[in-house]
Amino acid sequence: MKLSSVVSVIDEVSKAFRETFGEFTIDQINFKPNDAEWSIGQNIDHLIRITESYFPIFDEVISRSHQVRWFGKFRFIQRSFGNMILQSVQPNHKRKMSTLTIWKPSISDMPETILDDFEESQSKLKVYLEKMSSHFERRTPIHSPGNDNIIYDLQTAFDIIVNHQWRHLNQAKEIANHLDEQL
Fold first, then answer.
1. What is the pTM assigned to this prediction?
2. Architecture of domain 3-182
3. Domain boundaries, the chain
4. What would the pLDDT profile of 41-97 be if each residue is shown by its tens digit?
5. What whole-number distance in Å separates Cα of residue 135 and Cα of residue 153?
6. Which positions ≥6 away from 44 have C-beta within 8 Å?
């Protein structure tokens, strides 16, 4: 995917969240159908946490201090890990997965600013993308923020981030459907 396309997709995701949930009350944003599911707000907070967990890695890429394990320098390993993760976060992938503790929502009742916080995180993501444009084009390898043994290139990282965001938009819409049933 080209750099400009990724920026467009980031904007599309942000717009979709705002258009879908922008008129919701904070009670609707924090509604949970049951104890096993996250609220719309928790889904958004999860996305912010994942996106921002990449920022220290991106800082290292920009400063040229980022190191990946020796086996991560092989493109076929990068492609294998990248494709595996990308497949698991596809918007139409129905199987729920557990997440690492660092990416779990911090609280159950999100603040009224959660959509603004998401858009701010998306803006920061685009700034990083611009700063790393040459690395993006060269497909510089990075490791996952959740596990430094999982290595993929920057283009794949951005594909993972935005596909994961679309996936959680769909999950949040399902929660909104439950909300409609409650009314």
1. 0.89
2. Up-down Bundle (1.20)
3. 3-182
4. 999 999 999 999 999 999 999 999 988 887 777 777 777 777 778 787 877 766 676
5. 9
6. 17, 21, 29, 110, 114, 115, 117, 118, 168, 172
Residue 165 corresponds to which amino acid? Q
Residues in the chain: 183
Tokens of 44: 């958004």
